[in-house]
Amino acid sequence: MSEPSIPTITPSISVTVGQTIPLLLASIAVEELALAHIMNAEAEKLQYVLGTLSPTATTLTPGLVTVTDLVNLDRSVQKTLQHVIKKEMLLGNKFTNVLDLIQIQSQEITPPPVLTFEKTDDPDPLNLDISDTLTYTLTLSNVGTSPATGVVINDVLPPGTVLGPTFTLDVGSLPPECSLIGPTVGGIITCNIGTILPNETIVLSFSGTVTSLISGTLTNTAIASSSELNPLVDIEQTQVIVPI
Questions:
Q1: List of residues 6+ apart from 70 with CB closer than 8 A
Q2: If we measure between CA atoms, which residue out of 114, 140, 134 comes closest to residue 122?
Q3: I need a labelling partner for 71 at 20 to 30 A (CA). Which of 33, 107, 108, 151 fits?
Q4: Residue 231: in which H helix or E strand, if any?
Q5: Looking at the domain assignment, is residue 10 inside a domain?
Q6: Per-residue model confidence as pLDDT tens digits over 107-146
């Protein structure tokens, strides 16, 4: 005996698990409707033999009915109902499986977003003999397949020092999504991003002036958070050179 082969179906049909649920429910409903028609036909068969079938266009009256006819009719109806009951049991199991599938679908875990966060400075090192302007750039990307919601970036500006480097924010350089909490030296920049869609990248930049009497390092800490993930932290250190 040769092995059975599955024919190639063109065009190919592809459906998701969620799309199969209404198709399965529709198939159960159609089968239930067919069984209802069968049971109704068996009931009318009995009514006809017993002479209780409601008249339609022509009044139907049974002919001579013997006990043997009644027994044969009973066996026929009983056999049909046995098949209907078996089919109902199969449909009941099928419906239970569909309900389990619906529950699994509703509990399916959506993969969390995947965020990458980077903070850069320009220039680095900063030579005060050439320029006193320092620009920070924040880049936040969603490389996952789900959106990131409630996204907020907090940037803690470097604190001021007496002799060492001090960064003073130019408030006018802030993007529209950002605002300053506290002073322009050592304050906190808060940027309310909201939602970042998959494959979307947010780039924010701001600048300020640097003053210093001696060479040193500016440390700037940025924190990106969302409703789905733990905060991402990036610390940027800028070397400040004071000419002698």
A1: 49
A2: 134
A3: 33
A4: none
A5: no
A6: 666 788 999 999 999 998 889 888 889 999 999 999 999 9
Q: Both 235 and 119 in a single domain? A: yes
Name the nearest CA neighbour of 218 among 226, 227, 209.
209
Q: Are residues 54 and 159 in the same domain?
A: no
Structure tokens at 59: 């009044």
* Domains identified in the chain, total number: 2
Beta bridge partners of 120: 137
* Token output for 108: 């399916």
Written as six digits, the tokens of 214 are: 């001696």
Helix (H) or strand (E) holding 213, with range, is: none
187, 180 Cβ separation under 8 angstroms? yes
- The tokens for 45 are 């068969």
Of 150, 151, 148, 169, nearest to 159 by C-alpha is 169
Query: Which three-class secondary structure state does DSSP give residue 12?
Result: coil
pTM beyond 0.90: no
Q: How far apart are the first and last CA of the chain?
A: 96
SS3 breakdown of the chain: % helix, strand, coil, rounded to 5? 30, 30, 35
Q: Beta partners for 238?
A: 218
Strand order in the sheet with 126-127: 126-127, 232-241, 216-225, 148-156, 188-196, 178-181
Q: What is the DSSP string of 158-189?
A: PPP-SSS-EEEE-GGGS-TTEEEES-TTT-EE
Helix H, strand E, coil C: the string for 18-37 is: HHHHHHHHHHHHHHHHHHHH
Q: What is the mean pLDDT of residues 25-37?
A: 91
- Token pair, residue 227, equals 């409703």
How far apart, in whole angstroms, are the C-alpha atoms of residue 193 and residue 211? Answer: 31
Q: Does residue 230 share a domain with residue 129? A: yes
